[in-house]
Design brief:
Elements lengths: L3 H21 L4 E6 L4 E6 L4 E6 L9 H31 L16
Helix pairs in contact: 1-2
């Protein structure tokens, strides 16, 4: 039989730990690049672009479309990378806090 109060306490502990970890995600960063490193983008764990660095050779009006494409590609790569890091952080933060209930994976909730 389940100890309902114990489970509820574990849920509350997990909620606190998740909020603490979410607040720290701003310090987590990931980089994406495109065009063999000609465009580099850094995003944080709140999925915000922190910086964009472009090779000077790209900054000319005739290369505007290529610059846009490379910037979008670098941002998307950085966002994909940060998603993996966020899931790892959240999984680590909640590991062992809840009983092993099939189908309930707190690490994949974010």
């Amino acid at each position: 039989m389940f100890d309902f109060m114990n489970i509820m306490n574990k849920v509350k502990e997990a909620q606190v730990k998740i909020k603490e970890t979410q607040a720290q995600l701003v310090h987590l960063t990931a980089e994406g690049e495109a065009g063999a490193g000609m465009v580099k983008v850094v995003v944080n764990g709140h999925r915000k672009v922190v910086s964009i660095d472009m090779d000077e050779s790209l900054i000319n009006p005739s290369e505007r479309e290529m610059l846009s494409d490379l910037t979008i590609a670098a941002i998307n790569k950085a966002l994909e990378s940060i998603e993996i890091k966020i899931k790892d952080e959240m999984k680590s933060a909640t590991e062992g806090m809840m009983p092993n209930i099939p189908g309930m994976d707190l690490g994949n909730m974010f």
